[in-house]
Amino acid sequence: MLDTATSAPTIRGMYIDGNWVPAARTFDDLNPSDNSLYARIPDGSPEDVRRAIDAARAAFPAWAGLAFHERAHYLLKIAEVWDRRQSDFIAAAMAEGGGWFGKGAFEAGYVAEVFRSASALCYQNTGEVLPSEHHKFMMALRVPLGVVSVISPWNMPGILTSRGFAAALAAGNTVVLKPSEDTPYAGGLYFAEILEEAGIPKGVFNVVTCSRESVGAVGDELIENPVVKAVSFTGSTAVGRHIAAKCGAHLKKACVELGGKDSMIILEDADLDHAAKAANFGSFMHQGQVCMSTEKILVQESVYDTFMKKFLARAAKLKTGHTRDKDNILGPLVNTRQAQRVKALIDDALAKGATAEIGGKAWDNFVEPTVLTNVNSTMDIWHDETFGPVVIVVPFRTEEEAIALNNDTEYGLTAAIMSRDEARALRIAEQVETGICHVNCQNINDEPHVPFGGVKASGVGRYGGRWSLDAFTELRWITLDRGGRHFPPAF
């Protein structure tokens, strides 16, 4: 629960089998705006994970056996409780996650819809009747897997945590969640409070928190424990590769949504005022700490100068600073390590000949909104996901060149295309190598019921709507013979 007087949470322990359980030790959870102590969080162990997994396994038969509408009602109750406590989440997202008030409010308003959308899955078709050459009655049925491990990120702890487990619960699975060590409350223990208040049965939903030092051993238990049947992960590509490889070794399902190096293509016939506004939001919302952030703006040469004047004028107005001041649209990066990494990418580019049209400065955990030009493929920032308030702007001459520049990356999450010619934009959309593409909008788009995910190094699987069922169910073939199958006389 949140102490409204101090905006600091009361940490009651990890949440295992419907109980608040202390750990043998704790770790410090810092406010990234000033590195002050936000909370002391239980530093869980592999043994704690095993207890949570055992609780989830014990709860699975009853949860999976509920009538579909009963699970739907639970999910709707979660949404109701979440809506009632939106202000608590906003405060946590600002103080623990370093988000601007508007970003926290957006997340808080979105998450309830994740659970409402998941509740609708309970009413959808979970199988098909198939034709049979032997006149059997044949069915393809979706059934829940069992225990699902969920490992969630820090950048959107509300949306990306809820998306990681809501559909899994709807399908009849039970869950063990490990939130990021940078947002263990907003992305983990806060959800335990919500689901406890909603009356979710004991053991159906469990939360184990841990420090960065413990995450290797805890993560391995979440993935390799034989009781766990699938892993849901959102985070960096480096960690996602590691998790997917371990899941593959154990023949487990993995749904991994990873990084991006996303482009916005601005064609000569685009509405440049709209494009400048969209690019400003796509590049700098939440300090660029979004997998869908616009990291490259590709602008057709004939409108490059005009676009840049409009874009830079908007970007220059963005204020950076402590999240307690609502005028600061850009808060801190999530920790000092991340701020130093982003600054190193900027410095590498500048040293190799890039130009900072605005920004380039950094202090403490803060990085100014930065726009770089004259960037080329020798610079680390051309290839590496920045995950900071930095965007590259590159001119191009032809559609073919724009497509090649967009595809020149190992990532493939989102693309955006700005043009008044919708047929032209859709033609380009078919050729960009991404799982998602938005015409006349910026890269950061999401809705709870859509198939969200990337290609190439941006992930495997899809979250959202009925597509989530692929990740969180098993498909079974069941037949009923009514005497029509004949066997050779010799038998």
TrEMBL record:
Residues 20-478 form the Aldehyde dehydrogenase domain. Keywords: NAD, Oxidoreductase. SUPFAM superfamilies: ALDH-like (SSF53720). The keyword NAD applies. It comes from the Bacteria. This is Salicylaldehyde dehydrogenase. InterPro entries: Ald_DH/histidinol_DH, Ald_DH_C, Ald_DH_N, Aldehyde_DH_dom. Belongs to the aldehyde dehydrogenase family.
